[in-house]
Design goal:
Low-confidence stretches: 7-40
Structural class: mainly beta
CATH superfamily of the largest domain: Thiol:disulfide interchange protein DsbD, N-terminal domain
Shape: globular
Order of helices and strands: EHEEEEEEEEEEEHEEEEEEEEEE
Helix content: under 10%
Number of helices: 2
Length: 282
């Protein structure tokens, strides 16, 4: 039996983070149970379906599954780095049973421009493979996944979902999950060179990156080791080099010591993506 519960989130935070989006829908509390049959249940506007895809057991004993969020036509949701006009999905698996650890895999997202503001995410559908490490590999995992995410069209709706599934890992490899795994940005050895300078409320990073000079390339900075807000990167091409600058602001809005080895940089264009960890200081 799979359970799906959905509710509106407080709009204050969402409106602050997504201020460039034209309008925000007022959501009401929704609570529902999805029965084991396929009978229809009410869902928030823009959200067509949400489910856990049961996958297979890997050679190491972990379970490969996926979270699939299906949106109405034209709607989108956000990547782990949402850009300057969005919030990243957040996950809570603490209510799960027989679960030791979770790793989320992120397929290559799209870049959207709205009212001069860049956002990063997925249109119509988001499939996130998740690798689950059980406490006891001989027993099923009772997965409880609480998700908070934003979905947007002409308006934005913050949504909270509770997905539950029993995962035995006895299935064959699922083509949908394997395709999503294959769609991740390509991991490449880092050849990035960076300058890091303090600013009033954080640090400013400028990276010199290898580039094929595609005019639609976007460089995204992340700091996996700690929570920071990251501005849209400002980019310019110089031959086969992409120069990208972004501000990283911690929760206390103060300058901090940034180890360039902690940076993760992803470069996207319309058809390709590569990702590198670390940046050599210039």
């Amino acid at each position: 039996m799979t359970r799906l519960a959905s509710s509106g989130l407080g709009l204050g935070l969402f409106a602050t983070v997504c201020g460039a989006v034209p309008a925000f829908a007022q959501t009401t509390e929704l609570a529902m149970t999805l029965p084991p049959t396929s009978e229809a249940v009410p869902l928030p506007m823009g959200l067509s379906h949400a489910e856990v895809l049961d996958g297979w057991q890997t050679k190491s004993g972990t379970r490969m599954a996926a979270i699939r969020i299906t949106l109405d036509a034209g709607w989108k949701t956000y990547w782990r780095h949402p850009g300057d006009a969005g919030i990243p999905p957040s996950f809570n698996f603490k209510a799960s049973s027989n679960l030791k650890d979770v790793k989320i895999y992120w397929p290559r997202p799209q870049v959207f421009m709205e009212s001069g503001t860049r956002s990063i995410g997925y249109k119509d559908q988001m499939i996130l493979p998740i690798e689950l490490m059980p406490e006891d590999a001989s027993q099923p995992i009772q997965l409880e996944a609480d998700l908070d995410l934003g979905i947007c069209h002409d308006i934005c709706i913050p949504v909270s979902l509770d997905l539950a599934a029993d995962l035995e890992g006895k299935g064959a490899q699922d083509a949908v999950i394997t395709q999503a795994l294959a769609a991740q940005p390509k991991k490449v050895p880092s050849t990035a060179r960076c300058t890091i300078a303090p600013i009033r409320d954080g640090v400013r990073v400028t990276a010199q990156l290898p580039s094929d000079a595609a005019p639609d390339q976007v460089a995204l900075f992340e700091l996996p080791s700690q929570p920071v807000w990251v501005s849209d990167s400002q980019m310019s091409h110089q031959g086969n080099t992409l120069s990208a600058t972004a501000d990283l602001v911690p929760p206390n809005s103060e300058p901090f010591d940034l180890d360039p080895k902690d940076l993760r940089i992803t470069v996207l264009d319309k058809t390709h993506a590569y990702e590198m960890d670390g940046c050599a200081r210039m």
